[in-house]
Amino acid sequence: MTRLLGRVSTGLRPAKLARFSLAANYPSAGHLFALLLLTALGLTVATLPLDSSAANLEGGASSGAPATLSISVQGSHLVDGSGNTVQLRGANVSGLENTAVQGWTTNPWGDAKLGNEPDWSKLVAWKMNAVRLPLNEASWLGYMCINADGSKRNPDPGGNYQATVKRSVANANAAGLYVILDLHWSAPGNYCPTGQTQMADKDNSLRFWTSIANTFKGNRAVLFELFNEPFGRNVYPIASSDWSVLRDGGTYPTFIHQNTQTGALETTNVSWEAAGMQAMLNAVRATGTTNVVLAGEMGWDGDLSQWLSYKPTDPAGQLAAAWHAYPWGSDNSKPSWTGIGDQYAFAVAIAKQVPIVITETGHSLSLVQALFPWADGNPSISYLVWTWNPWGVWDLIKDSNATPSEFGKYYQGHLACAGNGAAGCR
Fold first, then answer.
1. Which of 20, 272, 307, 405 has its CA 20 to 30 A from that of 395?
2. Residue 343 and residue 213: Cα distance in Å, rounded?
3. Rounded distance, CA 209 to CA 213, Å?
């Protein structure tokens, strides 16, 4: 997910990006046109399957933070340090991907509107057991970067980005939360990562993951999500060449990135080398860490159809799939990319081999009212909502005191129901 980040001269805080304006699945006119075209060509929507055998796993899945805060992949499930199956249920907390690189304040949490640091106990009070923290590679690595106008920018103006991330992870863990660290914003060369781009880059992303893995490899309560919402050339249907770049890396002739003031995609005429999921996973494993790694898919993390064919190989056997389940423009009760195939069916096939973590979802009550019960019934599938920030109608809270929004009231109630082990929680 991406926010509109541009401030106006009055000093007002940035508005949250309306990802699904014009009933699109993503903020790209080309993407919307492609999906409408696929629908017009007769690609239909299937019904929601449920892997009933997984739903009947003996003992059920743990939704609360386990006594031993450690997580790993065992077969197609996530398990805690005692071997109990764990389903992650939680939220994203946005801020670390954008505040420091924009130079708005020396506190990397300064724009999250949650004080000096989010109060992790408030998430736990809602019966969450996981939080996802989107990160910025330039802010973490601390190199001077170049703006579009050629001027230089310090992406860590307070010189405290790494210390802030480390402290936040430690405090979230202490509160009882697993933490997903996500490479959210990146850019090739010395360009400043100030918005979503098409894929990770060889110049900085491999160094980022080597550093992150070395920093957290002793903490088994931390999961690594290799890259947020890859979209490649942003041409649909997705070409096999984009799927190959996703896994193996490759050259892109232009650098496509999102303008965080308008939400539009912009193009810089520079050739660059993308880092694939395999290279990033190799960088993590080269440090000796065996933490769980999440790998997403093309189509802004929304198209599961080719995940099994293009997944990276993990010698540690600790790979899970990341999925962003946002509403489909033609029917907001169904996930995006439904027009090219039944994403629930693809998910069931994947979940028979590896766990799936829906690391972002929301923006449609009818979608999550179908998605969450379906996921609750399959112990291989976890989910986190975007986002625990008081920014707009589809965010979970209204203020730093965690007053729930209308959508937040629904999610809070669902978590209470699912956390108590009830069946059929909507």
1. 307
2. 31
3. 6
Q: At what angle do helices 365-376 and 406-419 cross, to 10 degrees?
A: 10
Q: What is the mean pLDDT of the chain?
A: 87
C-alpha–C-alpha distance, residues 172 and 166, integer Å: 10
Instruction: Give the residue from 179, 105, 185, 103 showing the smallest Cα distance to 137.
Output: 185
Structure tokens at 77: 């499930």
Residue 298 CB contacts under 8 Å (≥ 6 apart), including other chains: 230, 231, 232, 238, 242, 243, 246, 306
Percent with pLDDT over 70 in the chain: 84
161's tokens: 């980005």
> What does the chain come to in residues?
426
Using the CB atoms, write b or e for 51-83: b if 16+ within 10 Å.
beebbeeeeebbbebbeebbbbbeebbbbbeee
Edge-to-edge strand list for the sheet holding 85-86: 71-74, 77-80, 85-86
* Tens digit of each residue's pLDDT (9 = 90 or more) over 349-368: 999 999 999 999 999 999 99
Contact 192, 250 (CB under 8 A): no
Helix (H, G, I), strand (E, B), or coil: what is residue 256? strand
Measured distance CA(228)–CA(389) in Å, rounded: 19
